[in-house]
Each structure stands twice: as C-alpha cells, then as structure tokens.
C-alpha cells in the first residue's frame, strides 16, 4: 500500500512513513494510491464482532507491511481498553429512522480519542523500531489538542506542542490541555483563530530546515492514520443497522472534514452509504460550497460549537482531490488561489462529483439551543452543541429522504460545553468522576503571538534534546 500527495509532487510513501511524515513536502495531504475494498460477504461477517475486531479488519488493508498483525491487534486492543462503554461507539435511537452514534466515551470525551488513542500506540511501535524521537505540533479548535495530549503525555521520545486559539475554546477543553503535569506537554494559546493555528502548523511543516531539525510530526487529520481509524465506526454502526443489505446515511458535524472524509472512504471500501451529510454551524463555508460551488472565506464567527469554527477545512482538499479525478495540479491551483485570494470556485464536473456523495446543511446559534432542549425533552438524550447542529441537519435530510436510516455522529460529551447545554436545558452536565477536580488543578499555558518565527523559536527552545 503506497501513499501519494493530493498535490502530486511529494515522494510516494509507505503507511508507516506517511504516518510519521504528516504534511507532504509539497504542502499536500497523503492519501492511499488505491482504496482497498471489502466484499458484501466480508462486510456481513463484521456483524457480531467486537469493535476491536472490526477495527483490525478495516485498518489492516491500509497499513501494508508497516505492522505485523500482532502489532496492529495489540495497538488496537490497548487503544480502546480505557473507553467507558463496552461497545466503544454505542448507537441510541432518537426517532423511528434516526440514530445517534455516541463517540464520546473515550478518555477526553470526544470522537478524537478513537483515532488518537490508536495512533499513540502505533507511533510508539514505529518510533521504538526506528530508534527515533519526534516533536509533535498540533493545532486544535478544542478537542484534538486534549486527545493528542492524552495519547502522548509522559512519553520519552515525543514532545507535544498544542496550539489553540486564545479565548475560543470552552473552559473544560482549555483545562484538559493546560492541566496535565508531564514535562513533554506544552499548551500554547495563540492570538488568532483555529485557521491561524492550523496555518502556522502547516508553515512549520513547509519550513524544511525547521521540520528536519526538530523531527516534526503531526497528529491532526493531516495525518492519514487519524482518518483511517475513524473509518471503523461507520462500519460498526451501519452493520448494526442492517448493512450490507440496507443502505445507511450519515450526518456528520463538520469542521476540518476529517470525520466525514472517513465516511467517504468507508463508502469507497464498499459500505452501502446512501448520503454523507455535512452539518455546519454559522461558519458555513462547506455548506455554501456544496450548494453554490464557491469556497469563499467570510471570516470565522465564534459560536457555541467552537470545535467547528473553521473556514480553512484541511481535509476538504482530500475530497476535492477525488472529485477532480486525482488531479494534483488542479488541487495545487485551487489551494494557491485560496491562500492568495481567500476563495476558489469548484469546476462543474467536480461539484457534480461532490454532490453525488455529499449533501449539506447549516444550523445557526438559536436553532442549536432549540435542538438541544427539544432533543432532551423528546428523547431523554443530553447532547453537545456540535451534535445538536448535526441532529438539526439530519432532521432536515430525513425530511427529504425518510426511507433511509440516518446515523448522526455525536462527537463530544455535553459536559465539555456546560454553558451552552445549561442555557438550552437548565442542566449543567457533570464531568466523569476521574475529571471531577479539573477546575481545581493548576493550569500551565504559554500565550503566543501568531508569528511563525516566534513559534519555531519556542518549540526549538522547549523541546527536550
Ligand atoms: C466535537 C467536534 N465535533 C465536530 C468536529 C468536526 O470534525 P472534523 O474536523 O473532522 O470535521 C470537531 C473537530 O474536529 C469536534 O471536536
Ligand atoms: N475540531 C478540531 C480541529 C482540528 O481537527 P483535526 O481533525 O484536523 O485534528 C479540534 O477539535 O481540534
């Protein structure tokens, strides 16, 4: 299995190399050269297996010979052992044809744990084999950061620096990043928004001298291994609802497009996915693009679903790459236009290809609150604001296609966003007992300017040599 860049100009790599490389050296994102498929019989055979067994069967064909079967199985077992639900990703019924896929039973209470816990294990195996140390720099709008810290805290051969937008994450999210005591963990509050954090991260990858000097590695969904581990729950949930005999649709609260792109890969692998519905909050660039063909930045407006406050949606590049028939030059041109002019127009063929796969919708702030309140009243489920955005978009999609079962991804625990949930319901959801002293723990955070040279100097100075 070989991995190629969406911009077509970077070295072709194995899975292991792509995992440790992060951003491709031409600025693109790695994708598999071919997408492995499962037959209908192989998908049917997943019924009744544990989450871990399904994960192994789905992930193995992508990893080539980087890991032995025993290594991959062991990594998966260890990754999910600490989850707070035996099913790992349980389904809850909201309405006759509407199901919620709860992805918040991992250690940091967000769907990011599903992939981050696995790649934490895979990094350790690969770094030990190669006798290497790496410096991970991550950008977060709230959830990736704590999941990365949880997966890599205390490791001797990894330093972790997390850039988050100052004042734009929830207090629980911030404290999850600023209270770990391990000296390899560095929380950096950047003066800017998430797009600035991600842009500086990509700048660091594009500064080859810096990248090579510090052994830069990435665990954002830039890293294909992140997306890979997120394919698994599309299979477990669809099979539980009758796939491969029955088609299933998914609605995904979307920001950086990693989670829904994993759904695209599941579909390409043979899972009968009817529609993948992109759910956006008031930062609706993806909804506008799918509907009108224009990807135009308007400026990020902070919302009550802060993890989706994103306008430069990193993995949309991967979606465009497939929509443009794997044309790296076309993608390079679009990404250059976005950087220089703040917008691009998708070609008629490519927008047609995207609309074959994706549907989309947008939910504003008022409706988000209404949905949190109504969902609790009608179903007894307390949901986070990101999930509420997706529930609203899914309800609209179900009105258009009531016959196909809809799975809505519940991406974070409501206790991560107590203020919004309280405003909608009058309930402040409690954190699990293991986190009950989160608000008493001392915080350790460095405020940083949105300045590449200053950030690089900080990482150089703080990482352990
Ligand atoms: C709670 C939550 N929901 C949804 C998203 C959006 O997911 P993605 O960036 O993969 O589109 C994020 C951030 O990634 C998140 O943290
Ligand atoms: N919403 C994310 C943003 C980063 O996304 P990633 O999937 O690329 O890591 C977050 O919570 O940080």
UniProtKB/TrEMBL annotation:
Residues 2-80 form the Threonine synthase N-terminal domain. Keywords: Amino-acid biosynthesis, Lyase, Pyridoxal phosphate, Threonine biosynthesis. GO terms for biological process: threonine biosynthetic process. Its EC number is 4.2.3.1. Pathway: Amino-acid biosynthesis; L-threonine biosynthesis; L-threonine from L-aspartate: step 5/5. The modification N6-(pyridoxal phosphate)lysine is found at residue 112. Its cofactor is pyridoxal 5'-phosphate. It holds the Pfam family THR4_C. Residues 99-366 form the Tryptophan synthase beta chain-like PALP domain. It catalyses: O-phospho-L-homoserine + H2O = L-threonine + phosphate. One of its GO terms (molecular function) is pyridoxal phosphate binding. It is an enzyme of class 4 (lyase). Belongs to the threonine synthase family. This is Threonine synthase. It comes from Paenirhodobacter enshiensis. The lineage of its organism: Bacteria, Pseudomonadati, Pseudomonadota, Alphaproteobacteria, Rhodobacterales.
